[in-house]
């Protein structure tokens, strides 16, 4: 593109694109998120493209690989637009039929439809699927319509119009006021007010300022930031450009986790396209404002998500946190004032500008405005990313959207906030989710992971899991965190192995508090949460492990043994064949027996038995 | 060695010999060799005028870097929370038993290296194992042995 695009020209390009798109053409959209990638969506998309070419249907249909649709459980997902026909778990063998029946004959193929878990009704349209129905997808909704590697798709959904109106009619201070008025708070975890953060950075003395987009997303079980960066990268870029204008930054950095190759690829392409369209670089859209974005790839360290550590990483150093103050807003990258926001926070900015702060602040609760994307994972029927207004109850999220717990097992707890968060028990299922309520419950918002646990999840094991994670990821700078997480892990490991002693719980509580009080950064300060919240709500489970040397959920290997039930065993020999230790004996159609001296508790028999005859005691 | 020096030098030049690019340089070297050969680190230290100890510090701090040569196939078990509650530790244990190595080790025949990752963000498929960038979702204990056998007989190297 040789001509430098200005604001008016951008609007012209946009109307041209919309005119082209209005032609009545069917669009087969295929979810291209990482989850669907793992299911093989690339082959599905390619087969659609090949088949359409072969049948010479380019005039009536096109294929688009889009960002993540969120309903990962049902991938590969295919949605046929403009009607929004929702086909799930599409296999290569289904493709010819989709083309001949749905694209050409306009008929619905029933077996590819989603079946409502409650009513067993078949559902045709995407927006009618219960998983989507209760969501409010203002940030995430466009993912399903756009090819993230194609800037025109973003322009077609009104992309970069917020930037154009900011550059045309708002002063930097007005932008900051608008964001402040919207009530937007940081989506990365701590929930600091975004507008206020911008203001502090903009008022910090100094000519050179930086902004940073944090996509380190280290919380296990949380992947909404990746899906945004991967599925709608231009919305993040647009948010950053507006932020840079408000704050007065000339350069920005996107820090992406090394484990997210597709996100890196898509954001790299998007930045290049934005430069081509004069949306990044010198004199953006013909104004006096110049700004550019660079990518910095992480190398795998959870603690690097902490802002001072993240800045060290961008500078090419070891990502260890520093004492704050000075905060990054005062002294950040290379000593200059730096504003750091998380991916989802940046993606909220264009929406707020376009729809207005008063519209935005009507969504949510008193203290927490807007929507939040959660990743609903673990023991849940509908695994996926869900975007809901702040203040929705856990019950609505887990049962209405998530479809409840598989296999009619009982819901036990939900873990939020990653390793810094805590477990919320079933008694609190009607808790409305916002920053304050989660903190009061002993957990936190974090980046939005929600790991659902059922009766077969052991809370001692969960505490052990997070402590192991934290002791491994602790950078070791503060003694309280380095030794505290290690010692707590040792105690909980002992409890899980039947070596727990009276007084262990109290010692854990004391250690957790000391770790929290004496550590410098967020990792250590919140390391107590997974321990304290599990003890607070599931103390009896810890006590049973200690006193009775039993694991009620049947998880802690040293406290369980496998046996075969007389009642259910059919003598099919399936378990006998998979046992790696030859510990199971028995004849065909006769009761099998496990030799406890040989059994290594690998669980292969339990997983194989189709008759629920293997019992954990 | 000459040819290898050339490759490493190309990487260093690509990043303009800048110290702030150190992590990116190490990532590119690792992409080339699947680990960080000692000689290459010495070369980086010399070119960027950074003490070797600082480079080793970086390389050992970040999880993605390996100072040891990895096997032909890289097996990664996801240990994210969602995979954990769905039984990931038992899958990992089975890999350890079947490969007869611990996490971070390579089998004697140099075929497999076993590693773990904290979350791949493909939680719907949990528990997940990844072998040479191929995702295997809803892993079962009994699938482990079959997968290992499949890749043992696979003649291709993982870069192909």
Mind explaining what this structure looks like?
The complex is a heterodimer of chains A (617) and B (160). Chain A contains 24 helices and 19 strands. By secondary structure, chain A is an alpha/beta fold. Chain A has 5 domains: 23-130, Glutaredoxin; 151-360, Rossmann fold (3-Layer(aba) Sandwich), CATH 3.40.50.11540; 371-454, Roll (Ubiquitin-like (UB roll)); 459-548, NADH-ubiquinone oxidoreductase 51kDa subunit, iron-sulphur binding domain (de novo design (two linked rop proteins), Up-down Bundle), CATH 1.20.1440; 561-616, Alpha-Beta Plaits (2-Layer Sandwich), CATH 3.30.70.20. In chain A, helix 8 (172-182) crosses helix 11 (233-247), helix 10 runs parallel beside helix 12 and helix 20 (504-518) runs antiparallel to helix 22 (528-548). Chain B has helices at 2-14, 22-33, 38-48, 52-61, 81-85, 88-99, 141-152; strands at residues 73-78, 112-117, 129-131, 134-136. In chain B, helix 1 packs across helix 3 (38-48) and helix 6 (88-99) crosses helix 7 (141-152). Chain B starts with a helix and ends in an 8-residue tail after the last helix. The model of chain B has no long low-confidence stretch (mean pLDDT 91). The interface between A and B is large, with 59 and 44 residues.
Annotate the secondary structure layout.
The complex is a heterodimer of chains A (617) and B (160).
Chain A lengths: L6 H16 L3 E6 L2 H6 L1 H14 L6 E6 L11 E4 L3 E3 L7 H10 L9 E2 L6 E2 L6 H4 L17 H6 L4 H9 L2 H11 L11 H10 L6 E6 L8 H8 L1 H15 L3 E6 L4 H16 L15 E6 L9 H8 L23 E5 H13 L1 H4 L10 E8 L5 E6 L4 H8 L9 E6 L5 E4 L9 H6 L8 E6 L4 H15 L5 H18 L7 H15 L3 H5 L1 H21 L13 E3 L9 H5 L5 E2 L7 E2 L9 H5 L5 E3 L1
Parallel strand pairs in A: 1-2, 7-8, 7-10, 8-9, 11-15
Antiparallel strand pairs in A: 1-3, 3-4, 5-6, 11-12, 13-14, 13-15, 16-19, 17-18
Chain B lengths: L1 H13 L7 H12 L4 H11 L3 H10 L11 E6 L2 H5 L2 H12 L12 E6 L11 E3 L2 E3 L4 H12 L8
Parallel strand pairs in B: 1-2
Antiparallel strand pairs in B: 1-3, 3-4
């Amino acid at each position: 593109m040789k001509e430098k695009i200005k604001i008016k020209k951008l609007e012209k390009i946009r109307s041209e694109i919309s005119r082209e798109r209005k032609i009545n053409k069917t669009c087969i959209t295929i979810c291209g998120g990482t989850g669907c990638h793992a299911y093989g969506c690339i082959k599905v998309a390619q087969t659609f493209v090949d088949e359409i070419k072969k049948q010479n249907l380019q005039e009536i249909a096109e294929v688009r690989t889009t960002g993540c649709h969120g309903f990962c459980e049902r991938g590969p997902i295919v949605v046929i637009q403009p009607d929004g026909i929702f086909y799930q778990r599409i296999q290569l063998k289904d493709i010819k039929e989709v083309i001949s029946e749905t694209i050409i004959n306009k008929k619905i193929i029933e077996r590819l439809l989603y079946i409502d878990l409650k009513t067993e009704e078949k559902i045709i349209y995407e927006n009618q699927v219960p998983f989507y129905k209760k969501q409010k997808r203002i940030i995430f909704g466009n993912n399903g319509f756009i090819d993230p590697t194609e800037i025109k798709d973003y322009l077609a959904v009104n992309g970069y119009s917020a930037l154009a109106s900011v550059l045309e009619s708002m002063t930097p201070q007005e932008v900051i006021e608008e964001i402040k008025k919207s009530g937007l708070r940081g989506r990365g975890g701590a929930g600091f007010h975004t507008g206020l953060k911008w203001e502090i950075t903009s008022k910090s003395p100094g000519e050179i300022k930086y902004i940073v987009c944090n996509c380190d997303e280290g919380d296990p079980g949380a992947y909404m930031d990746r899906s945004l960066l991967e599925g709608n990268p231009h919305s993040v870029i647009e948010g950053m450009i507006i932020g840079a204008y408000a704050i007065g930054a000339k350069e920005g950095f996107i820090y992406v986790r090394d484990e997210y190759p597709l996100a890196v690829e898509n954001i790299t392409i998007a930045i290049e396209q934005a430069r081509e369209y004069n949306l990044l670089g010198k004199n953006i859209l013909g104004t006096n404002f110049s700004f550019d974005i660079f990518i910095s790839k992480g190398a795998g360290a959870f603690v690097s998500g902490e802002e001072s550590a993240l800045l060290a990483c961008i500078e090419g150093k070891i990502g260890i946190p520093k004492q704050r103050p000075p905060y990054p807003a005062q002294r950040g990258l290379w000593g200059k004032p730096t504003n750091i926001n998380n991916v989802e926070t940046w993606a909220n900015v264009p929406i707020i500008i376009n729809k207005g702060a008063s519209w935005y602040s009507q969504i949510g609760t008193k203290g927490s405005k807007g929507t939040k994307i959660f990743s609903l994972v673990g023991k849940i029927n509908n695994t996926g990313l869900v975007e809901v207004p702040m203040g929705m109850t856990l019950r609505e999220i887990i049962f209405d959207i998530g479809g409840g717990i598989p296999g009619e097992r009982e819901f036990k707890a939900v873990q939020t906030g990653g390793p810094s968060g805590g477990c919320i028990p079933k008694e609190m299922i009607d808790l409305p989710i916002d920053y304050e309520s989660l903190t009061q419950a002993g957990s936190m918002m974090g980046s939005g992971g929600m790991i659902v646990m059922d009766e077969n999840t052991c809370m001692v094991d969960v505490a052990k899991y997070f402590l192991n994670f934290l002791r491994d990821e602790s950078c070791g700078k503060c003694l309280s965190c380095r030794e505290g997480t290690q010692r707590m892990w040792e105690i909980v490991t002992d409890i899980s192995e039947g070596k727990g002693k009276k007084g262990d719980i109290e010692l854990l509580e004391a250690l957790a508090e000391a770790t929290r009080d004496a550590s410098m950064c967020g990792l250590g300060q919140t390391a107590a949460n997974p321990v304290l919240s599990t003890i607070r709500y599931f103390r009896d489970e810890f006590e049973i492990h200690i006193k009775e040397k039993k694991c009620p959920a049947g998880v802690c290997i040293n406290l369980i043994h496998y046996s075969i039930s007389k009642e259910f065993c059919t003598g099919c020999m399936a378990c006998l064949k998979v046992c790696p230790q030859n510990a199971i004996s028995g004849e065909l159609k006769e009761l099998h027996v496990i030799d406890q001296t040989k059994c290594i508790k690998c669980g292969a028999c339990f997983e194989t038995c189709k008759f629920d005859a293997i019992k954990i005691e | 060695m000459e040819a290898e020096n050339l490759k490493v030098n190309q990487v260093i030049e690509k990043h303009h010999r800048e110290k702030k690019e150190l992590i990116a340089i190490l990532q590119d070297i690792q992409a080339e060799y699947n680990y960080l050969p000692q000689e290459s680190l010495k070369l980086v230290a010399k070119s960027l005028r950074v003490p070797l100890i600082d480079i080793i510090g970086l390389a050992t701090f970040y999880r993605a870097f390996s100072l040891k040569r990895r096997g032909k196939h890289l097996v990664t078990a996801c240990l994210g929370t969602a995979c954990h509650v769905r039984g990931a530790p038992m899958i990992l244990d089975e890999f350890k038993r079947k490969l007869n190595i611990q996490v971070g080790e390579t089998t004697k025949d140099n075929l497999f290296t076993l590693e773990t990752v904290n979350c791949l963000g493909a939680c719907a498929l949990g528990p997940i194992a990844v072998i040479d960038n191929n995702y295997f979702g809803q892993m079962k204990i009994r699938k482990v042995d079959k997968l290992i056998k499949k890749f043992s007989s696979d003649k291709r190297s993982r870069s192909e």
